[in-house]
């Protein structure tokens, strides 16, 4: 056996990339001779058992924080590290695991500490900088994310790794379009505005209607904008032009969504995959996508070859791309190109092999940080901490069953301790510049080659 990997992850994700990734990569790594344990954060806003049922992770251990404090979170993670005794502790948007893993060395458990990056957000790169003296490796699912880990956080380039998402590749799609059938579109993902730009669906449909296009839109997913977006669609829902499917189980995605779809629409401002594009391409569904931040350095989406692309927020251009798919020859070319892309680059087998290589490299690396001391102190979480100190304050809190009442999943188990706002303009200017320069260079290279 190569060793034991302990993933520390939230259990509050809806449909989407991180949950899907954790599901297949856990199983795939076990086949690669790793012992894999998934520690799932539990609590009022985190349901580890339901998560396990939906996503089928192999060996799941719930992590219960009885007090709700940060010290409580760290102690709960320390406890599972002690019980599992892993060679690698891998954080999946749970930064408290890094201090917990560091503390575990006091009890002679010496795991390498790894951060996985599944987002392009300024606070995540702050965390890399904050814990840089502790982390033995950072693994990103996107090449722009790798570059940002180096440029924005100043992390050691030799300890930054790249491992993309992957999907199962289907051999065929069962759609048969008859004359007069509506153009069947799908949106798959969180219903929110900042990243996914869900509001763009409204003017896209309006442009299609102005052009006299008969369409049907399936929306698979949930999120904070769900009530608002439903109210805006109005009569379109009553007339079945728009159907909300809610959260669709991973194993039912093809049957419920992709096998009924003529095109997937992606309106995002940024992505590190996204895994739904690879799923659609694998199912021979053409993709119409924004030129999201994260697609430039990745350099795989090629307009009019394996997908159709539009400028972020340009809803008229998006509708024009959708209408191109009424031309059967264009549709078939896009389908062939997309299917070829995921077959050669984004299938599960290749993805698991990439994650296996990353974890193996980190495990055998001689750049050992076992002697590093805890790099920062924990801010007192309340009156007991200020009076008695954090450790004793937590013990008193647990003894007398005093609990914090968290109002959200992100409060109960924070995904980051970075303080920069998600819309920090300097960060996004840098990210866009890095990505656009790469996209322009790639475009020029392709033009010269053709």
Mean pLDDT: 88
Gyration radius, in Å: 23 Å
Please describe the biggest sheet, giving its number of strands, its sense, and whether it closes into a barrel: 7 strands, parallel
Question: How would you describe the shape?
Answer: globular
Strand percentage: 5-15%
Total domain units: 2
Structure notes:
With 450 residues, the protein is an alpha/beta fold. It folds into 2 domains: 3-166 and 349-396, Rossmann fold (3-Layer(aba) Sandwich); 183-346, Rossmann fold, CATH 3.40.50.2000. 42% of the residues lie in helices and 15% in strands. The protein has 18 helices and 13 strands. It has helices at 17-31, 48-55, 70-84, 96-104, 122-130, 143-151, 201-210, 226-233, 235-238, 253-256, 275-282, 315-324, 328-344, 348-364, 383-388, 390-399, 409-412, 425-449; strands at residues 3-9, 34-42, 60-64, 88-92, 112-117, 137-140, 160-162, 183-188, 215-220, 242-246, 263-266, 287-290, 308-310. The strands form 2 sheets. A 7-stranded parallel sheet has the order 3-2-1-4-5-6-7, sandwiched between helices. Strands 10-9-8-11-12-13 form a 6-stranded parallel sheet, with helices on both faces. Helix 7 links the parallel strand 8 and strand 9 (215-220). The longest helix has 25 residues, at 425-449. The radius of gyration is 23 Å and the shape is globular.
């Amino acid at each position: 056996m190569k060793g034991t990997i302990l993933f520390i992850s939230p259990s509050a994700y809806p449909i989407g990339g991180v949950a899907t990734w954790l599901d297949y990569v856990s199983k795939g790594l076990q086949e690669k001779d790793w012992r894999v344990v998934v520690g799932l954060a539990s609590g009022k806003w985190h349901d580890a058992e339901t998560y396990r049922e939906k996503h089928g992770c192999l060996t799941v251990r719930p992590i219960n924080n009885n007090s709700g404090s940060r010290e409580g979170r760290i102690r709960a993670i320390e406890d599972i590290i002690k019980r599992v005794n892993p060679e690698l502790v891998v954080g999946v948007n749970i930064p408290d695991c890094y201090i917990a893993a560091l503390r575990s060395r006091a009890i002679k458990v010496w795991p390498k500490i790894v951060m996985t990056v599944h987002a392009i957000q300024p606070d995540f790169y702050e965390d890399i900088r904050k814990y840089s003296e502790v982390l033995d490796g950072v693994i990103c699912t996107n090449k722009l994310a790798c570059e940002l880990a180096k440029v924005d956080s100043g992390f050691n380039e030799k300890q930054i790794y790249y491992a993309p998402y992957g999907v199962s590749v289907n051999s065929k799609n069962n759609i048969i379009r008859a004359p007069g059938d509506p153009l069947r579109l799908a949106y798959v993902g969180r219903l929110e505005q900042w990243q996914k730009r869900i509001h763009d669906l409204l003017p896209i449909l309006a442009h299609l209607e102005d052009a006299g296009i008969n369409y049907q839109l399936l929306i698979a997913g949930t999120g904070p904008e769900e009530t608002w977006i439903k109210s805006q669609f109005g009569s379109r829902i009553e007339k079945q032009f728009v159907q909300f499917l809610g959260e669709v189980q991973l194993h039912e995605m093809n049957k419920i969504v992709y096998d009924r779809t003529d095109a997937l629409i992606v309106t995002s401002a940024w992505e590190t995959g996204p895994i739904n594009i690879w799923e659609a391409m694998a199912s021979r569904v053409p993709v119409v996508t924004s030129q999201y931040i994260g697609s430039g350095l990745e350099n795989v989406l090629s307009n009019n070859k394996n997908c159709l692309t539009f400028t972020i927020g340009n809803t008229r251009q998006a509708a024009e791309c959708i209408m191109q798919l009424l031309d059967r020859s264009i549709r078939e070319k896009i389908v062939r190109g997309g299917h070829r892309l995921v077959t050669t680059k984004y299938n599960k087998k290749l993805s698991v092999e990439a994650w296996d290589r990353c974890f193996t490299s980190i495990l055998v690396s001689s750049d050992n940080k076992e002697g590093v001391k805890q790099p920062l102190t924990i801010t007192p979480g309340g009156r007991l901490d200020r009076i008695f100190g954090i450790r004793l304050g937590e013990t008193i809190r647990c003894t007398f069953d005093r609990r914090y009442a968290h109002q959200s999943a992100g409060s109960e188990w924070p995904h980051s301790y970075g303080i920069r706002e998600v819309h920090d303009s300097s960060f996004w200017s840098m990210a866009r510049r890095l990505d656009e320069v790469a996209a322009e260079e790639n475009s020029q290279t392709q033009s010269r080659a053709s």
